Amino acid sequence: MSPLVKKLGICLGGLIAVGAAGGWYWHHNSSAGVTFRTEAVTRGDLMPTISASGTVEPQEVIDVGAQIEGQILYFGKDVNGKLVDYGSLVDQGTLLAKIDDSLYTADADNAAATLQQAKAGVTKAVADLGQMKAKLDQAASDWERAQKLGPSDALSQSDYNTYKANYEVAVANVGDDEAAIEQAKATVAQSEAALKKAQQSLAYCTITSPVKGIIIDRRVTIGETVVSSLNTPSLFLIAKDLTQIQVWVSVNEADIGEIHPGQRVTFTVDAYPGQTFEGTVGKVRLNATMTQNVVTYTVEVDTDNADGKLLPYLTANVQFEVAHFHDSLLVPNAALRWYPEPEMVAPDVKAALAAKSGDATAGESDAAASPEPAPTTQPAHSHHKHNESGENSSRGTVWILDGEYVRPVSVRIGSTDGIETQVLSSEDDQLKEGVTVVEGEIRAHDAATTTNPFAPQLFRGGRH
Questions:
Q1: Are 310 and 56 a contacting pair, CB within 8 Å?
Q2: Which of helix, strand or coil describes residue 153?
Q3: What is the model's pTM?
Q4: Is the separation of the CB atoms in 307 and 281 below 8 Å?
Q5: Which long-range contacts (CB under 8 A, 24 or more apart) does 366-374 make?
Q6: Is residue 376's pLDDT more than 80?
């Protein structure tokens, strides 16, 4: 054999050896170097909640409007002596604004003059009645004397008839004057009503606060003309008491059955990150609304605001406390969702699963012996209706470490708060406080994909 052929053979053998070593190294690194992410089983309190969003609202708001038309001349002053504006504190009766009253003053003066004229008409009617009664008395005396004499030589028939007619006319005149008095009195009453109306319209030019509170909104400016037609124009919005405030929460119809008056509530607002406020359910409004085929109910949550931190119309992230379980065994929800790759499972577990399935072939692929757990039934909402007795509980599987491998533990689970789940019982009572369960895994080649300490680390978690 020539030296050249020998050299080519040696080089080819070296390349084959290098390739085989590289293949072994790649295969070894692809199946090894796995670090499991674990978390310890804990014991503590679990509080399932219903999450919703709402808006901070004053308990009682008064919309102050104008009942007449006119131009805003000036604003009043609040309790601190400053012009009424947003956030001004006002007492009951505080002047808020003044509307031009020149036309209404003229109407009131005209109504007052009309009333005086009507009263004078009553006086005149009374005087006319007195005069008519005097004439009636004279006519009655003449008629009485004429009746005694009768038509005779002393009293002609013509005079007799005249006395009778005079008497009857006097009686009729008295009746007319009595009716005129009643008419004059009615005119007085009508004029008094017109004056009262004119005075009331004049009074409406002065806008005062009906309650003690704080100005939330000022909707007019000096010089602006308000027009009162079909709708009363709104000038100011006053909150009666901001020390007691409400949160109006929109709750989905699927959750409304878990809400009841007196229920404890916690909530946060973006204005004060990290601070949690407390309240209780006041009432559930029955006038549901539908938006995009989703029915929601408004729930009123009462809360104390003595420090004045909560401002009207802040957005609140609300948690309704549905239940409170004490001293419960808790596992992370991630541990219930994770399951391993076949090569991570303890060999005896795979063999047991293979034997159970009737597959006795020693060379069966790992995929056939993969311990695929039955899907864990996780609650659709964080307040799933479970209890300590296990009623309505579901089954699940968690994985614990067994040397370099993991092995499954079947569990019966109860309620969850969205982060942790209550364990009611476990297979052979293997889960106790302090036992670590696997949440996921990190492969060495995944961790080495980046050297940037600020870049996010990509975990290779189990399938969900």
A1: yes
A2: coil
A3: 0.63
A4: no
A5: 366/342, 367/342, 369/342, 369/345, 370/341, 370/342, 370/345, 371/339, 371/340, 371/342, 371/345, 371/408, 372/339, 373/339, 373/397, 373/408
A6: no
